[in-house]
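hey so i finaly got around to running the thing on ECF transporter S component from Tetragenococcus halophilus. pasting the sequence first so u can double check i didnt mess up the copy paste, my clipboard has been acting weird all day
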Amino acid sequence: MQQKQKTFRLVLTAFFLAILLLLATVPFLGFIPIGPINATTLHIPVIIASIVLGPRLGAFLGASFGLISMIRSTIIVTPMSFLFSPFIAPFGETGYGSWKALLITFIPRILIGIVPYYFYRWFEKRMKNRKAGLGLFIAGLLGGIVNTVVVMNMVYFLFQAEYAQIIGEAGNAVYVAILSIIFAQGIPEAIVAGLATAGVAAVLLRFLDKRT
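ok and heres what it spat out for the 3d tokens, dont ask me to read them lol
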């Protein structure tokens, strides 16, 4: 029985990884160009996997999301590619980019594979297994917020001058621009993630409970 559980979890991990690849390769599905930095839906399967499969596999899929993002930013070059790929120099410069891009690419994405799991387990214990749907929604919402907030703040602290040059702002206006992306782009992303997590993760958790 334990071996079957391991096999099933491996299959489910491969399924989530396939979804990430599908979202990344279909235009306007995984990466949606609606602002200086693309909106994304790739965080959704990572959040769901975190809750269903646990933080280790969630972190693995989060790192996979980061790798996909880095490869895409390297191949499809935009003025913001240097933020996510160490192989692309800031706009107007020559040579390679900075290793700091790896921090932005991987750290937030790994976190979204970890944070939702621990929040949901804490919520589950606190509510004594009641209101599971609400817990899943908030966990998904939190995962989406973590992704956008951590990415954008790392952009500000690691690439403030380069980012300011791209958007044509300076001083406090740079962080105002960061906040506008967090609210205008990050909040809708988080709400969609919360709704998707509440729907899909609930079904998968019930299915796993029946198998055990």
